[in-house]
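User: hey, got a sec? need Antibiotic efflux protein folded
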Amino acid sequence: MTVRTDDGRQAAEQSPATGALVARLILVTLLMAELLIQVDQTIVNVALPFIQRDLDFTESGLPWVVNAYGLLYGGLLPLGGRIGDLFGRRRVLIIGVTVFTLASVVCGFSTDPTVMVIARAVQGMGGALTAPVVLSLIITSFEEGPSRQRAFALWGSAQAAGALFGLIVGGLLTSGPGWEFSFFVAVPIGALVVGLAATTIKESRADERPSIDVAGAVTFTAALLMTVFAFLDTQRSWTSPLRGGLLVVAAVLFAVFLAVERRQGHPFVPLQVFRLRNTSGALAIMAIFGATQMSYFFFVTLYLQEILGFSALQTGLAYLPLIATLLVFAQVCMKTVARVGLTRMLMTGLLCLGLGMGWLGLAASSGSFVGTVLGPTIISGIGLGLTMMPAGTLATTGVDPADAGAVSGLFNTAILVGGSLGLAVLTTVTQAVGGLGGTHGYTVAFLCSAGLAAAAILIAALVIRVPKQTDAAA
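Assistant: Yep! Here you go:
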């Protein structure tokens, strides 16, 4: 394992036993931080009716308990990654987790809707600082090859499983001590992550420390925030002047951003990474993957509750087969990718995810858990377990360590923004065919998601190119 110290020099070599122990502690710390961020994206969903009752939220205001977090988290991810590159990834990790944890405490003690929404926005800011530096610390702490791929496999499992654990833990806590503990649970985990990060992770940053590209950061972040806001604002139709105006302004800002970046010596988002064929392909695949994954969780959760009549706790428990399958096949992926190859493993994962969504669509009218959900859940879990590691490896192989934070921010942003965009589009499609009052709307949503997975497979086949020696070393 190689890391860089504050001044950019390589740290001294350690004995094999000590180095292995330190590597495990670093990985545990990073996985806990990732799990903390991902769990929070869904843990609050189960508690929303109780939060509405206790804090007197209006129906139009309640979605902002979720949207305030998603808006700041999605819009600031690339900025968080770049800040980590410039000012120290360990430092930014500690700051991000601390901000996230303190905001969680405020959420738990909230007695007013405004305080809750503001605290959720601050949580999103903490998450945006944390998530990209977790991935960039994996890139900089583990050398290319089996050790980094193992870390990516476990990171992918933590990212995908975190959202599912959030549903289960949220159901248990809301049904037990109360919705406040859905936020308080972050306190011991956040404190442990901060303590471990401060004692096990060596500081790393880009070898050169240029000033932040303010113009690029402002235009890109503003454009991304407007885009995410436009897709999250489901209270308005797609033809509303506000939604359309935001998207037009976002497009103009993106154009200005590209013009600014071409003239920057040290750009906010290094455009040269998009010249790497595999990085660009993997980012596009992750955007589609995010749309498929988020649509799966959203529509399956509604199907279980609205069609099958499951309670919040039963809904969370219904995802246990998916969690178990995901964790098992993440390990299978790690152990067999050297024989299968990165591209074939990625395509196999996407194929399983597509098959699971297609099966859900075809079986939606049966109206039973075993007949409709259980089989597709297992197939989709296989797909989730096989996809994240090869995608993360392909996106970051050959990337300059100085750009690790920027690429990791883009990777996470692709998943989140792709998920928001895809879910918004699929929700619009289901409303056009009659909504989700019956099984027909779910059939359309699941089959469209299967089509998205097929598009991702096509990109993998046409764009991704991995030399044989790279696959052999995987």
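Quick note: Confidence is low (pLDDT under 50) at residues 1-12. Let me know if you need anything else on Antibiotic efflux protein.
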